[in-house]
Specification:
Layout: H1 8-15, E1 20-23, E2 26-29, E3 32-38, E4 44-46, E5 52-53, H2 55-62, H3 67-75, H4 110-118, H5 123-131, E6 135-137, E7 144-147, E8 153-157, E9 199-203, E10 210-212, E11 222-226, H6 229-241, E12 248-252, H7 259-268, E13 271-273, H8 279-287, E14 292-293, H9 301-307
Parallel strand pairs: 11-12, 11-13, 13-14
Antiparallel strand pairs: 1-2, 2-3, 3-4, 4-5, 6-7, 7-8, 8-9, 10-12
Length: about 300
């Protein structure tokens, strides 16, 4: 097939300049620098695992293409019908969009540490994520930002205290009853009160995600897919304390609706669903019956970590 004979090195530099970096006569994937495409050769090699693949495999495994999208992208506009005769009604791939990462705070990450420590994330793990450049505190709003190594996905979580998040309707609500510090004693039983801080995602394509790989020198055997970055980190801490932390990657897809990220991940690795123990999580498990899954005892893995339910 002509698609597999295209110069992948030049294709990546032209079509995905922000996803790869030229190094020593090859281009490496910024999200995983073990994935290398050598100039003048076809396909790729993973120097961590020894795995290899062709041009189409590369686009599907690492850049989120479907098979038809990969074939058509590699062939370009000059492709003839015979070049992709096996492709039936190929979809047009979504064009990557630009995202702006929040500017990091130039100073101590006090809010970040306070928030994650209150959620029982160990300080050594917090510092490690900061040192790896995949988590920081934003200058504006003092939010926690979980960003992918390639900069194509970020997950933003507010760090405001409960005092800053007391019920905004207290002045005109008939159910308001003042407790300590002016909090309404009814707020945790109230459907209008939202106890969780702001949580949002930005991504260049629908199938992007955040991930944490604790042991970069050992080929990963499994990918645990969680809904939020804090849950992914919490699951890592739980498995570590249970001495069950095999070579694994811990992923956040930013919510169970991100099926495209799940589809992308399961093409390349053994995936275990570790989404929330709630109706939305069950819908995700039903939607992916071929995948193994694990359930938190509570609603999510951070709940389990905070309560010690493991």
């Amino acid at each position: 097939m002509r698609a597999c004979s295209v110069d992948l090195y030049e294709f990546l530099l032209q079509s995905h300049p922000k996803a790869v970096k030229p190094m020593y006569g090859s281009v490496v994937l910024l999200a995983d620098k073990h994935i290398s495409v050598k100039r003048g050769f076809h396909g790729y090699m993973d120097f961590q695992t020894g795995d290899t693949g062709n041009n189409i495999d590369y686009l599907m495994n690492f850049l989120g293409y479907t098979y038809p999208e990969a074939v058509l992208a590699l062939l370009g506009e000059a492709a003839s019908d015979s070049d992709y005769s096996a492709v039936v009604n190929p979809p047009i791939p979504d064009a990557p969009k630009e995202i702006t990462l929040p500017k990091p705070l130039n100073g101590l990450y006090r809010n970040l540490y306070a928030y994650l420590s209150a959620r029982k994330i160990p300080s050594a793990v917090i510092q490690r994520l900061i040192d790896e450049g995949i988590m920081y505190q934003s200058a504006e709003g003092n939010n926690i930002v979980f960003c992918s190594p390639a900069g194509d996905y970020c997950e933003i979580r507010g760090t405001n205290s409960y005092a800053d998040r007391r019920c905004k309707k207290r002045t005109d609500c008939g159910r308001f009853h003042s407790g300590s510090h002016g909090w309404c004693t009814q707020m945790y039983d109230c459907h209008d009160y939202k106890p969780d801080p702001f949580h949002g995602c930005r991504k260049t394509r629908p199938d992007r995600f955040w991930y944490f790989s604790p042991d970069k020198d050992t080929p990963s055997k499994v990918v645990y897919v969680c809904e939020a970055a804090i849950d992914a980190v919490s699951l890592y801490v739980i498995l570590q304390r249970q001495n069950k932390c095999e070579a694994a990657v811990f992923v956040s897809i930013g919510g169970v609706a991100n099926q495209k990220a799940i589809d992308r991940l399961k093409r390349a690795k053994k995936v275990i669903l570790a989404v929330d123990n709630d109706p939305a999580g069950q819908e995700c498990r039903d939607r992916n019956p071929e995948l193994q899954f694990i359930l938190p005892a509570g609603k999510d893995w951070n709940d389990d970590l905070k309560k010690g339910d493991f």
